[in-house]
Design brief:
There is one protein chain. The protein is mostly beta strands. It is 0% helix and 56% strand. Strand 7 and strand 8 form a beta hairpin. The model has no long low-confidence stretch (mean pLDDT 96).
């Protein structure tokens, strides 16, 4: 049974930083990714990291501001978010994904990130 638990969300002012974590248990030999869903909008891809951590991919909207990484010894993935903007406000979900098209296979429960202007 796979379980993904996100943490690190919260309220931050525009221009600030947050680091999200996603702790995985069970079968986790997958690529992993972050997605986000703002109120009234669809869930969108944010970033992905390969199983080894050697390859990463970002949505254009976060490129240069967010950094995805993972520590397989700790079964944990991270998302360092800098220069946050109000439009980054959303529930952030981690997922185990298929590398290539980034199709989610398992989801976490989500963590709220709110950026005030």
């Amino acid at each position: 049974q796979v379980q993904l638990v996100e943490s690190g969300g919260g309220l931050v002012q525009a221009g600030g930083s947050l680091r999200l974590s996603c702790a995985a248990s069970g079968r986790s030999s997958y690529a992993m990714g972050w997605f986000r869903q703002a109120p009234g909008k669809e869930r969108d891809f944010v970033a992905a990291v390969s199983w080894s951590g050697g390859r990463t991919y970002y949505a254009d909207s976060v490129k240069g501001r967010f950094t995805i990484s993972r520590d397989n010894a700790k079964n944990t993935m991270y998302l360092q978010m800098n220069s946050l903007k109000p439009e980054d406000t959303a529930v952030y979900y981690c997922a185990l994904i298929l590398w290539g098209d980034f199709t989610p296979v398992y989801w976490g429960q989500g963590t709220q990130v709110t950026v005030s202007s």
